[in-house]
Automatic annotation (TrEMBL):
Pathway: Quinol/quinone metabolism; menaquinone biosynthesis; menaquinol from 1,4-dihydroxy-2-naphthoate: step 2/2. It catalyses: a 2-demethylmenaquinol + S-adenosyl-L-methionine = a menaquinol + S-adenosyl-L-homocysteine + H(+). It is an enzyme of class 2 (transferase). The keyword S-adenosyl-L-methionine applies. It comes from Micromonospora profundi. This is Demethylmenaquinone methyltransferase.
């Protein structure tokens, strides 16, 4: 599915999120608290748009993704970003290789969420940081109703105009609706080897940043 959306992925994201994706990426970088020279892994990096944002911190940022189509599109758009083929469930890195790991809008897409969270912990050094940036549940009930209507009705219609594979955006809407809310996801992160788990809502909870420390 991601191979098919790769070509216009970056543009479609920005249109469907009303440009909010850029500020969500900046907040993810800030939440990681990266220092120059640290090593950070961006899992489910896709076209590397999330990885490039991390590199602005001065840390060494590398992206890994399962879709060769996304990786090729990323290589063309931003050849300076290091991107590797790799499965979130079996990362091609030794234990404790990274000071920090992150996954943006991709944990929802991995087949086994809990196994992916454990695998992220495996490649992070003790005391290292995790930030999960993912769609979540808006906290205000009135806004939640409006948002869910946008998600299920307008978003697929807009995607038909801009995306190379509109069907993928029907899946996007459905997968967001089925995803655990902030508190449930925090519990799963805590059960997968991460301590001091907390979250912060962005755009009223449309997106949540969950963080944890490798125990
Ligand atoms: C919505 S994109 C997010 C890309 C990027 N992180 C961003 O913020 O724009 C989700 C990505 O997760 C990747 N993905 C899904 N399952 C994966 C897995 N098991 N291992 C690695 N990447 C995976 C897809 O190939 C896709 O590129």
């Amino acid at each position: 599915m991601f191979d098919d959306v790769a070509e216009r992925y970056d543009l479609t994201n920005t249109v469907l999120s009303f440009g909010q994706d850029r500020s969500w990426r900046r907040s993810t970088r800030a939440a990681l608290g990266l220092r120059p020279g640290e090593r950070v892994l961006d899992v489910g990096a896709g076209t590397g748009v999330s990885t490039r944002e991390l590199a602005h911190s001065g840390a060494y940022a590398v992206g890994a993704d399962l879709s060769l189509g996304m990786l090729y599109a990323g290589k063309r758009a931003r050849p300076e970003v290091p991107l590797l083929a790799g499965d979130a469930l079996r990362l091609p890195f030794a234990d404790a290789s990274f000071d920090a790991v992150t996954i943006s809008f991709a944990l929802r897409n991995v087949n086994d969420t809990d196994a992916a969270l454990r695998e992220l912990a495996r490649v992070t050094r003790p005391g290292g940081r995790l930030v999960v940036c993912e769609f979540s549940t808006p906290v205000n009930p009135a806004f939640r109703t409006v948002y869910l209507s946008y998600l299920m009705r307008s978003l697929p219609a807009v995607a038909r105009a801009v995306s190379s594979n509109p069907e993928a955006y029907v899946y996007l809407a459905e997968s967001i609706r089925a995803w655990p809310d902030q508190s449930a996801l925090a519990g799963r992160i805590g059960a997968a080897g991460w301590g001091r788990v907390a979250w912060r809502n962005l755009t009223g909870g449309v997106v949540a940043l969950h963080r944890g420390i490798r125990e």
